[in-house]
Amino acid sequence: MQIGDRTAQQRVRRYRLAQRQERGMARVEVQVPAGARADIQAIGRRYREARNRLTATAPHLDFALATINAPRPKPIDGETLLQCLLGPSVTAEWRPHIEAFFDELSVETIHDLVLARLFDFEELYRAARTWRVTDGKAVPWIREMADLSLAVAVDVRKETPVK
Q1: Quick one: residue 31, left, alpha or beta (phi over 0 = left, psi -120 to 50 = alpha)?
Q2: Is 137 helix (H, G, I), strand (E, B) or coil?
Q3: How far apart are CA 40 and CA 54, in angstroms?
Q4: For 134-148, how does the pLDDT look when each residue is reduced to its tens digit (9 = 90+)?
Q5: How many degrees, rounded to 5, is the angle at CA 145 between CA 141 and CA 149?
Q6: pTM for this structure?
Q7: Alpha-carbon span 8 to 12, nearest angstrom
Q8: What is the secondary structure of 70-121 as a DSSP string?
Q9: What are the pLDDT digits (tens) for 24-83?
């Protein structure tokens, strides 16, 4: 996009700089088939919503991070944890933290984070499979809750009462 007005160009530059520096946001241009546009926008929206909830979930998240970070030399922050759990890729430096999330956190703490809508059970189960930590103590419970959520969603779409 070419903007002819110099004042408008400067405003756009300042806005984008503020997004990057103050809000930690980056503008990404992606070319996708027209049919995938809504899906890609939904993914971006999901990340932004979860990131915005980090401050609202501070008590539960701080407890979880304290448990995860306790024996590790490099601590993980809430935003990085969220990126690791929602993202499709694995970063080796965070593997011990993600393993601790699924193995050392109590199901009550995980449930508190889900109730705060930081992520849902389907996303957690997907993360466990992505990171290949399916032997963690909480993973069977997460899988069961994800299956239950999916079953309820299917029943709602069929408009039949859940039994």
Answers
A1: beta
A2: coil
A3: 22
A4: 999 999 999 999 988
A5: 170
A6: 0.70
A7: 6
A8: TT-SSPPPHHHHHHHHHSSS--GGGHHHHHHHHHHS-HHHHHHHHHTTSS-H
A9: 667 777 787 888 888 888 888 888 888 888 888 888 899 999 999 998 999 999 999 999
